[in-house]
Amino acid sequence: MPHAIPKAAVELEDLAFHEGVPVLLRRALEPLKPGELLEVRGDSTDFVNYLQAWCRKEGHSYHGAGKAPGCYLIEKGEIERTVARPGSEVAEVAEPYWGLAPRGAAIELGGPEYSFPLRKKGDVWGQELHTIYSKAVSNQWAAAKDIPWNEIPKLPVEVERAVCQVMTFLTENEFAALYVPARFLARIHPHYREVSSVLAMQVVDEARHAEAFTRRAEERGMGLGTTAASGQLSLQTLIEEPDFSTAVFLLCVMGEGTFLPLLKFLEERAPDPVTALLMRYAHRDEGRHVAFGVGHIRYVTGLEPARRATFAAAVARRSQMLASVSGLSPFVHDAMVIYSGGGVSPAQIRRGAAFVAGLHREMDRARRERLQNLGFSGDEAEALSAYHTKNFM
Ligand SMILES: [Fe+2]
Ligand SMILES: [Fe+2]
């Protein structure tokens, strides 16, 4: 006998095996090392026979009666390691067998291996994830209850039509912004749940934007406008980008980064307060999406500064694929001029066209500033901003 003195004791009183004795035995044996003794005290009917049978089945040894009456000794068996404890720290690499285990949980071995392709911290992690997620949770709004739809005034037909066309353009972009994170979400190892959670909130935000913008177009009966082929072409090059960080750079830094001045403009120049409110809410959400993009790109370029060049190459490649697109679609451009100018008289068009030209300058300035904050040189930022898709996203 390796140890004559029991390491621990468990009192079972008159509890029978079929009433749950194994639960208490397993708990008592859990902290013991193989070879150590457990003193078991119990006096239910046929207790010893059941105890011996249980020990045989579970791989422990029965050592006979202990010193006191009604006490028996059992020795913990050599059982193979059945549980892994990866800990609660964020690991550099997440193992396939961790599967869906929450970070910090013990993992019973023998489960399946999962094939999450994005399972390195360096591939997916970012800065400020916790803050971005908390803000996303607390800033949720609902198109059905937070927008006073019945307060949309009756606008001149041309202006209402322009609003509907702008909503159409925004909605197709919302779909792209929904599909990009959704495509990657299922590929990210659950160990990095902060990233998945932020992306999941982003998907929810975009679904809400698409709902609200479509509703704005339909609310006054005019309905959606036209989707431009050039816009679709541009968005296709975005949603088909296979690399996660590159997709985040194109969508959240370049695209949504360009949408921030756009939404601000659409709020300030809105022909009615309801549309302005929609733009304000969407702008707040997009600010978080851009913050995620900036935090992720800052993290990955901090590990590997050379990635800046691959992101820049992706922007240039996309620009070549869109060489046939000469500028913003006339559907969208003209609608924005009328939307911001307030009508179709020559004076209103002059005003609107000047506003839209100013918007383009502001978008370019904001892109360059953001890129320089991410460590791109002034020349690189200028070139990248100029390459950025004419479709804004
Ligand atoms: Fe959005
Ligand atoms: Fe977004």
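^ fe (ii) ion complex. The first helix runs from residue 21 to 29. Residues 177, 206, 256, 286, 289 surround fe (ii) ion (ligand 2) (CB under 6 Å).
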